[in-house]
């Protein structure tokens, strides 16, 4: 039997029937609905909001949360496969789902009250309410403890002042999960985006994640009731716990981007004739393609094991850092090599490698830069914090 060129170690055979069914369902959505329009969306700098109802209808929003809140109740490997197939389409589509699921719905579930869960999670799972996650600030994202946004108690309310930057979904969201300094440490708040004093300003002139909405958020005396505070966590443990959830999905997503680039490079190399033979017949190109397949295979095995550890309740943040570092680096290198195989044709968005390459410049930076994750692993090895 011939091997699947994009799954050389038959990782799919290690999946359950349900996991395979979910992967196939999301793959069909990506093939039929995302790929036909995503190149144009990237060119236009437009997030395809028209896809939100179908994304919600497939159960992809908050997919790992319990069914009692209108969610799918899937395991972590299934969520990873969702991220992989969505990012095979575009990092912007996967980012939308990651933010909604891991950075907005998860903190309400993990840190909120039962009333907050019942109020928000079913509507968010249905795509009726979109969220954004306000942690990163303009003066720097790798040091979240140096937070300038404040929330001060005023009777039964909190008054929030400050700003956040590089916020995915900011201008399409109805609520923002905002982390702010209080007299009792960092706390999270559910902030309606129509609140007086709240402004979202979309960031333009991006060369990356162009099919995604990225915004700055500004809070000028924004008042929210104490009922909107997430009461079950204080300090950086709250936002960092959300980031671990999101980073886990990001370890899977770039595998999809890399597979898309390899697929395009393989097909192009068979059709491109130079010196009376396809470039696929040259050793130079075959070595490039083989190297791409090797690195994809390693990443697939890494994320599958990470997902099994997560489902067993044994996942450690350092393990997520290692996989995020490895898999995003793998994907961005493959996108660049695939662009090279395509030659001049590779600089246009008629082919996917340069679009994925540009998107991955953001993915390798957000949710912890590559350097941050390297230092997390280094700290684990030495016991010394070098931040």
What does it look like?
Keywords: FAD, Flavoprotein, Oxidoreductase, Transit peptide. GO terms for molecular function: fatty-acyl-CoA binding; flavin adenine dinucleotide binding; glutaryl-CoA dehydrogenase activity. With about 375 residues, the protein is α+β, with helices and mostly antiparallel strands. Helices cover about 50% and strands about 15% of the residues. It has helices at about 15-45, 50-55, 75-90, 90-110, 115-125, 235-270, 285-310, 315-340, 355-365, 370-380, and strands spanning about 130-135, 150-155, 155-170, 175-180, 185-190, 200, 215-225, 230, 275, 275-280. Helix 3 (about 75-90) packs across helix 6 (about 235-270). The N and C termini lie far apart (about 50 Å). The mean pLDDT is about 95.
How many helical stretches?
10
Helix content: 40-55%
In CATH terms, the superfamily of the largest domain is Butyryl-CoA Dehydrogenase, subunit A, domain 3
Fold-level CATH name of the largest domain: Butyryl-CoA Dehydrogenase, subunit A, domain 3
Q: What is the residue-mean pLDDT, rounded to a whole number?
A: 97
Number of individual domains: 3
Largest sheet: 4 strands, mixed
Oligomer: single chain
Short summary:
The chain is of the alpha+beta class. It has helices at residues 17-44, 52-57, 76-89, 91-111, 114-125, 237-271, 283-311, 317-341, 353-363, 370-382, and strands at residues 131-134, 150-154, 157-168, 175-182, 185-192, 198-202, 214-225, 229-230, 273-274, 277-278.
């Amino acid at each position: 039997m011939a091997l699947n060129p994009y799954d050389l170690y038959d990782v799919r055979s290690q999946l359950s029937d349900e996991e395979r069914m979910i992967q196939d369902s999301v793959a069909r959505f990506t093939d039929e609905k995302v790929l036909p329009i995503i190149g144009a969306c990237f060119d236009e700098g437009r997030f395809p909001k028209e896809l939100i109802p179908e994304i919600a209808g497939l159960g992809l929003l908050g997919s790992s949360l319990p069914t009692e809140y209108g969610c799918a109740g899937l395991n972590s490997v299934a969520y990873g496969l969702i991220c992989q197939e969505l990012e095979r389409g575009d990092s912007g589509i996967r980012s939308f789902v990651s933010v909604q699921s891991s950075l907005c719905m998860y903190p309400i579930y993990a840190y909120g009250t039962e009333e907050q869960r019942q109020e928000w999670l079913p509507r968010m799972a249905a795509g009726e309410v979109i969220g954004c996650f306000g942690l990163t600030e303009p003066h720097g994202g790798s040091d979240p403890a140096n937070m300038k946004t404040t929330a001060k108690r005023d009777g039964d309310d909190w008054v929030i002042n400050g700003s956040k930057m590089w916020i995915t979904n900011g201008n399409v969201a109805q609520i923002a999960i905002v982390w702010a300094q209080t007299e009792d440490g960092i706390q999270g708040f559910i902030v309606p985006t129509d609140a007086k004093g709240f402004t979202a300003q979309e960031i333009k002139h991006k060369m990356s994640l162009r099919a995604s909405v990225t915004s700055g958020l500004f809070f000028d005396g924004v008042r929210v009731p104490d009922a909107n505070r997430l009461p079950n966590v204080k300090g950086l443990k709250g936002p960092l716990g959300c980031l671990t959830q999101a980073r886990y999905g990001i370890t899977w997503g770039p595998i999809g981007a890399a597979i898309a680039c390899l697929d395009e490079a393989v097909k192009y190399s068979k059709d491109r004739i130079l010196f009376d033979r396809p470039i696929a017949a040259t050793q130079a190109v075959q070595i490039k393609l083989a190297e791409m397949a090797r690195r994809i295979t390693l990443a697939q095995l890494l994320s599958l094991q990470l997902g099994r550890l997560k489902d067993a309740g044994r996942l450690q943040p350092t393990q997520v850092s290692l996989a995020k570092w490895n898999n995003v680096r793998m994907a961005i290198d493959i996108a660049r090599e695939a662009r090279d195989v395509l030659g001049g044709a590779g600089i246009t968005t008629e082919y996917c490698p340069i679009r994925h390459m540009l998107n991955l410049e953001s993915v390798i930076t957000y949710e912890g830069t590559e350097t941050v994750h390297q230092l997390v692993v280094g700290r684990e090895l030495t016991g010394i914090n070098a931040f």
